Amino acid sequence: MQKVWFVTGSSRGLGRHFVTAALSRGDRVAATARSTASLKELVDVHGDAVLPLETDVTDRAAVFESVRRAKEHFGRLDVIVNNAGYAQIGAVEELTEQDLRDQLETNLFGAVWVVQAALPYLREQRSGHIIQLSSAAGVIAMPLGGAYHASKWALEGLNEALAGEVAEFGVKVTIVEPGGFATRNGNNPDPLANGHMATTDPAYDGLRERLGAMAGKMPAGDPAAAAQALLKLVDSAGPPLRVLFGKGFHPLIQQAYADRLKTWADWQDLSIEAHGPLQAG
């Protein structure tokens, strides 16, 4: 059945590939971007099947208006893709208050506004699928990515809670956790080169150099293949709560979770001690 999509961050990267894949198979898409000029090519090719919407996800009122217009234009909403976001790079000590607030305003609050705007329609329909773009960085953390990790880890918890809240209304939630994808001129983006950089402190220059030598070495995935995988995901009768997109990060995540379980087990005696004496009744 033809689906109606609402996709944020449609101007480039994975978001653009998601929109193109949906339109290419005959679906209809409300595509948002900070400037609709970046969406002109989509309109030229797909005509009325795409509704370009100029939307800054940090503006709650604008998000609600864009979702309302999309529902009014197409008559329904089936797939909500929370894709808009960016990576703030910097050691925790280097982050300004504004760096951190801006990161959370876009990556976390922007996603919340989209969900809050779309849910009344999805509940009324008793159907719909919310796709939250997280990241492998939403389950493991690396130095210099504290702000970005904070936003993605927050989205992981938020959407897990959301899934339990909306299941009874027939609404599904899936957190997509991509690794590195060749979204910039066929290359795996180097976050130390392409992210928003905090003002640097020389104390962390050595760490930056070591991480810079490692950056971009993970295998870069094909964004077009990721878009086809997303189509299969939204067509699934029983989609997962979480799914990794791409190769390379699965072994790292397996090890990270094994390490956490071992640490909790190793310190279980202290955990029990911290509980204190059991209280009767």
What would a concise description of this structure say?
With 281 residues, the protein is an alpha/beta fold. It has helices spanning 13-24, 40-46, 60-74, 97-125, 146-166, 191-194, 205-214, 223-235, 249-266, 268-275, and strands at 4-7, 28-33, 50-54, 79-82, 88-89, 128-133, 171-178, 196-197, 242-245. The protein has ten helices and nine strands.
Write a structural description.
With 281 residues, the chain is α/β, with parallel strands linked by helices. It has one domain: 3-Layer(aba) Sandwich (Rossmann fold). Helices cover 49% and strands 15% of the residues. The chain is built from 10 helices and 9 strands. The strands form 2 sheets. A 7-stranded parallel sheet has the order 3-2-1-4-6-7-9, with helices on both faces. Helix 5 links the parallel strand 6 and strand 7. The radius of gyration is 20 Å and the shape is globular.
Uncertain segments are none
Specify the biggest β-sheet: 7 strands, parallel
Classified by CATH, the class is Alpha Beta
What is the residue-mean pLDDT, rounded to a whole number?
93
At CATH level 2, the architecture is: 3-Layer(aba) Sandwich
CATH superfamily, by name, is: NAD(P)-binding Rossmann-like Domain
Label the overall shape.
globular
Strand order of the largest sheet: 3-2-1-4-6-7-9
Q: How many discrete structural domains?
A: 1
Topology, number of strands:
9
Query: How far from one another are the termini?
Result: 56 Å
What is the ordering of alpha helices and beta strands?
A: EHEHEHEEHEHEHEHHEHH
Number of helical stretches of at least 4 residues? 10
Strand fraction band?
Answer: 5-15%
Helix content: 40-55%
- The helix-and-strand class reads alpha/beta
CATH fold type: Rossmann fold
Tell me the Rg in angstroms.
20 Å
